[in-house]
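Both lines are given unchanged directly below:

***
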Amino acid sequence: MTHVQPKVIIHGGAGSSLGHQEKIITLREELRTIAEKVYHKAETGAGARDCVVLGCRLLEDAPSFNAGTGSVLQSDGQVRMSAGLMDGSHQRFSGIINVSRVQHPIDLADYLQPACDRILSDLGAAELARELNIPPFDPVTDLRLQEWLRARANHFQREAAGVVAEAEDEPVDAEARRGTIGVVVLDAAGQLAVGTSTGGKGLERPGRVSDSATPAGTYANALAAVSCTGIGEHIIDECLAARLVVRVSDGLSIAAAFEKSFAEATENGRDFGAIALSHRGEIAWGKTSDVLLAAYHTGKTLGDTLDLGPGTLTGVVDDG
């Protein structure tokens, strides 16, 4: 079997400017640390899917991000989380939609990978968690609770919660700021996998479904794997993850696929970002939002996208 240099890219959301330099430094450290841990697992020979699940679990445990612990609250004050997982080697998707009171939604999506019924929503997700004896878990943090209380006091004038939870004395951008976490891995066997997990956009109507547990937000085959973040409705309208993978499958380079897709997204007024890997080991990203919180490990380079300026940007890193 040919050995391939593993590659990893992860994201922690996309949205408007982060403001404080101290926050950027903290987020960079968190993202890079998790990217390193996922890379080291892949380097030991672990499969892409297992590495993706590890990365998602670590990001779900980080209260800075809107997934698992630290998820946003919906308009009724409840947390409902979704996660999607796709194994590119089998081109198999599984997902969980609007699950409550679990620590790691990605675990449920992982359990469903070999199942006949591979996407479950609220009641089915809750029953699965019970069957698996997953202990109840409260993912609400104080910052997210205070964020919801401020929004309620203002009659929910904001359309969504922040990508990153903020204290009351920190600047809050009233514009769209959507949070999701995602992990894409190319393993040493040359196989791809992708996972995406989210608490939703926050403050939304109960029952709203995000893009994360759909092929619009999470998609992979043997040639490319993509995880999206941003305004879920915009991602669904573009069918972004699947569109990027299909374009690579049809012969475009991953750089050309991102350039074409994000040019279309800009023309359509979309607000989102995406990360990806090709089977050749090319690490790709793109954004129409001000900020894309992403970090990557090539085996030679540990980098991130936090210093990128606003506006539509795409990029590819290929260290061989």
Q: What stands out?
A: The helical segments are 21-43, 48-61, 105-111, 122-131, 142-153, 232-238, 240-249, 254-267. The longest strand covers residues 7-15. Residues 21-43 form the longest helix (23 residues). The chain has one domain: 7-317.
